[in-house]
C-alpha cells in the first residue's frame, strides 16, 4: 500500500450516506477505486478485477447451492445461436431484435450472440423429453449474455454480462405454476439472507413481461437515489415455447402432449444493487455473507513485533476454523492508512491487536457499519466476532427494508404523480392503473416512470387510473418508478 493510496482513501468525505443526486457519481468512482472493475476495451464492457470477481464467485457459491438443492442440474450451451431458431417464436424474437449482436463469417451470418438461451436450449429439449418419465427436466447454466444496451452502466447494463438462467419443463400446469413461485422465493431468500436486500415481489404488466411468456414474476429493488432495479425474474412460459419448438411427451394416458415450461434468471446486476444500497461516503459496506474478506486483522507493530504477528496469526487460524474469511494486513503503512483502505473496500469487521492488547488478553474490534470500536476479550473472540457479523448482516437488511418503506408513496392525482417522480429521490409511487398498454406507455413517455410490478400480498381495492381516470384494471394498487 503506497502513500498515494493512503491519500486517495483518507481524503474522502467520511460521514453520512451519499446524497440522492450524487449516487451515480459515487458509484462510478467507488467501483473503480475499490478495485472491483476496470473499463473494458470495447464500448459498454467492463473487466472484473479479482475483488469484483470474488463477489460474483460468492453469488455463484451461495445461490448455486440453493439451485442444486432444488433438484436443478448445471449445463452449458453455446453462445452462438442460429438466427433461424430465434425466428420460430415471433413474440420472443421481436423483444430482442434491437439488442442482437450478429456473428458474421465473410458475407454470411453465422448466428446471434446469446441474448438469452430459450432458442438454443429448446431444440435440444425436444430430443431429451420423450416420455412423462423424462419430466420434470430442470437445468441451469452460468454464462455470459450479450445485449446492445443504449446506456451502459457497470454491473447494471453492460453489452456483455454474467448471469445464471434456469429452465424447467413440467408435465402439468400446476407443477409449472409452483415452479415459477418456488424459484422466485429462492431468489427472495438469497436477497434477504446473503445480499441484505429487500426487493418487492410481484408480477410484471403485459407490456413489461418477458417476450413470449404467459406472465413474468419479478423482484424490484428500490435503490438510493430513488430509482428501481429489476433484480430477478421467474417466467411462466406455459406451452408457448414447447409448441413452437415441437417439444412433446407421451403422457401416462398414452397420449402425446405439450409440456409446460418456466425460465428464471439473475445477473451480476445484483452486485451493483448491493453496492449502491449499502455504501456510504466512506466507501463500500459489504454484507458479511457476501464479503470476500469478512475480517481483516491489523497488527499494530512496536517493541514486540514477533509476538504481535504470532498472536494475529493464531487469531486468524481460530476464526478461519469457523469457516470465516480472514486476512492479516502486514503491510508497512501506518495503521490509519490501513484502516481507511479496508473501510473503503467494505470489509465488515476490523480487528486491531498490539502489544498492549496482548498484555490485556484482548483485541480491539471496529464495526464497518456503525464505526464503533470496542475491546473484545480473547477468551470470547469466537462468539464475539460471530455476534458482530450477524448484527451487521441483520442491520443492513433492516435498513434496506426501512428505506423502501419510507420511500414508497401513495399517490392520488396525476399532478402529485408528476411532482414526486421528478423529485430528488422519487421512490416507488403506489397507485391505480387502468391496465391498458397505451396508457402505460403514455405515462412512461411523459415521466420516464415504468410500471415496475403488480405486488404480491396487497389488499384488494379499487380506484381509477392515475393517468386516464378509467376504472382500475387491477384489484389493487401498483408500483411505478423510474428505472436504473
Portion in helices = 25-40%
Q: Supply the CATH class of the largest domain.
A: Alpha Beta
Strand content: 25-35%
Biggest pleated sheet: 11 strands, mixed
**So, the CATH homologous superfamily of the largest domain?**
Bira Bifunctional Protein, Domain 2
Q: What is the topology, as strand order, of the major beta sheet? A: 3-7-8-14-11-10-9-22-23-21-20
Number of domains: 3
Q: Which structural class should the secondary elements be placed in?
A: alpha+beta
Question: Keywords for this structure?
Answer:
484 residues, alpha+beta, BirA Bifunctional Protein, domain 2, Rossmann fold, Translation Initiation Factor IF3, 3 domains, 11-stranded mixed beta sheet, 5-stranded mixed beta sheet, 23 strands, 25% strand
